[in-house]
Structure to design on (536 residues):
């Protein structure tokens, strides 16, 4: 029997100086979706986060947003509080007795709660954090009334909403040490400026001179790139339970001014205007937390087909919350055998993109266009000592340099993500992922080309979960379509060693129990990758 789906709290981003549209929107932007004209079937229309969750068969949710009222000032309890205690109906974040009795008659499992913090006053992150603590406590209290086990809520936060969540966790911890870890299960942040906004230098005299901006002064101050308040996450919560989704498509963002300002900020970091490593508003280096897992999505910060309106964010979040397995990919060995400018200075970059079978979205995206590949490498075996990512992310964003294109973690970790074995169709043979590997070269002196492609190839990873689990690597889809020879026993007989094999069986790795390694390669590049699959 499947475990109950935890309550899900959605937290929107910055609303600007005038939040009248935000307070007038019932689902705070999480009801906006995207249309993909070039795709077919259910991939053509993504309905938006709330509607998608309500329609989900795998992780069924129901709407509980109207159960809680958010008010600028404290309100007195109603005459008929029904079954609720007075504390639950008095204050500025309160339960509505009649709605609570109707919507939560079967408990809080599988409920969605939109945190409408812009209904509160004053406009300050500390106030919003206290309100979130209160909301989660009310959800916990409702679970207790129904005799339900409560192992925390899941949270999805877009942009500044992630800063609100940070303040909420710190508020929980201040009220009761250790309670944040109990009240919140996992958090997904979408394009949150954890380390600030690179070009945010709004001086106090400007804020005082602009009354409209002054309303949001305290919120704007939270984007300060010199601040290290992001360390508050680790002080009260396990950052391994926070997945940071990083947007990389600055070109599609609606604000050309913000995108240009991010490019200008690179003058302070690298002395060049060549890069714009951002989602249009938030730098990739800012959208991550030291020690927290991360993934890249090639979407912009907001608007149509963005981090918050695209299917990618929903699917990645659901797997992080409910997935059965964690998958990790490392680079063990590599050799670049072509490229290298005779008169210039070559740099190499490595990136991967991973897409699961049966759905049209990526779990991670790295490419030259996204400007998020690992590197630069100057050695042809990619053994350069890249900066430690966690250490780099622990610095204030405003410090000189942006050295956050190092490995995702120790031991040359390329990627880690979450999958759900139960999501595969019954007729599927194993879990299959398409792995796109890219190796590029540029001449940093400007004598040669700056966009050479050394290697680009697709592989199909077929995972059979179990104890022990098994990994087969395909160079094509011939044995993945369910035809003759596609059963597990036939594939094992067909498997051959080496990167050129149509089907390759990954082999155990000495010194790394439970992990498997396989070879890839072709003209210009060869490597050995290692995969680990374990419980989520």
């Amino acid at each position: 029997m499947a475990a109950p789906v935890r309550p899900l709290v959605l937290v929107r981003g910055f609303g600007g100086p005038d939040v009248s549209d935000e307070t007038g929107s019932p689902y705070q932007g999480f009801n906006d979706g995207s249309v993909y004209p070039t795709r077919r079937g259910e991939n053509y229309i993504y309905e938006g986060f709330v509607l998608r969750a309500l329609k989900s068969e795998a992780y069924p949710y129901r709407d509980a947003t109207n159960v809680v009222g958010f008010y600028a000032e404290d309100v007195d309890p109603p005459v008929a509080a029904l079954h609720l205690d007075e504390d639950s109906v008095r204050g500025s974040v309160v339960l509505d007795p009649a709605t609570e009795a109707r919507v939560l008659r079967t408990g809080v499992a599988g409920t969605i709660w939109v945190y409408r913090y812009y209904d509160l006053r004053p406009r300050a992150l500390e106030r919003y954090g206290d309100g979130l603590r209160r909301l989660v406590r009310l959800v916990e209290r409702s679970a207790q009334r129904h005799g339900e086990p409560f192992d925390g809520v899941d949270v999805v936060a877009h942009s500044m909403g992630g800063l609100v969540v940070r303040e909420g966790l710190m508020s929980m911890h201040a009220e009761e040490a250790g309670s944040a870890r109990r009240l919140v299960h996992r958090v997904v942040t979408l394009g949150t400026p954890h380390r600030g906004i690179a070009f945010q230098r709004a001086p106090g005299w400007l804020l005082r001179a602009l009354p409209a901006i002054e309303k949001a002064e305290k919120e704007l101050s939270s984007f300060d790139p010199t601040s290290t308040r992001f360390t508050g996450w680790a002080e009260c919560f396990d950052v391994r339970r926070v997945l940071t989704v990083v947007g990389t498509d600055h070109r599609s963002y609606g604000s050309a001014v913000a995108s240009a300002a991010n490019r200008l900020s690179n003058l302070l970091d690298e002395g060049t205007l060549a890069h714009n490593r951002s989602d249009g508003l938030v730098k990739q280096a800012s959208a991550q937390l030291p020690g927290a897992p991360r993934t890249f999505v090639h979407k912009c910060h907001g608007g149509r087909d963005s981090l918050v309106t695209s299917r990618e964010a929903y699917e990645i979040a659901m797997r992080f919350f409910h997935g059965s397995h964690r998958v990790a990919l490392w680079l063990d060995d590599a050799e670049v055998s072509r490229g290298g400018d005779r008169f210039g200075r070559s740099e190499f970059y490595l990136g991967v993109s991973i897409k699961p079978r049966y759905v049209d979205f990526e779990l991670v995206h790295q490419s030259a266009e996204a400007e998020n590949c690992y590197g630069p490498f100057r050695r042809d075996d990619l053994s350069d000592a890249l900066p430690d990512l966690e250490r780099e992310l622990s610095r204030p964003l405003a410090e000189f340099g942006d050295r956050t294109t190092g490995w995702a973690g120790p031991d040359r970790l390329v990627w880690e993500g979450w999958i759900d074995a139960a999501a595969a169709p019954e007729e599927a043979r194993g879990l299959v992922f398409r792995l796109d590997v890219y190796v590029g070269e540029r001449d940093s002196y400007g004598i040669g080309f700056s966009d050479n492609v050394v290697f680009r190839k697709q592989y199909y990873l077929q995972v059979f979960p179990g104890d022990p689990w098994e990994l087969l690597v395909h160079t094509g889809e011939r044995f993945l379509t369910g035809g003759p020879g596609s059963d597990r026993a036939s594939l094992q007989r067909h498997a051959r060693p080496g990167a050129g094999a149509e089907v390759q069986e990954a082999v155990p790795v000495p010194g790394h129990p439970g992990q498997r390694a396989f070879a890839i390669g072709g003209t210009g590049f060869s490597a050995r990758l290692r995969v680990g699959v374990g419980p989520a």
The radius of gyration is 24 Å. Residues 200-212 have pLDDT under 50 and may be disordered. The first strand starts at residue 8 and ends at 11. The longest helix spans residues 125-145.
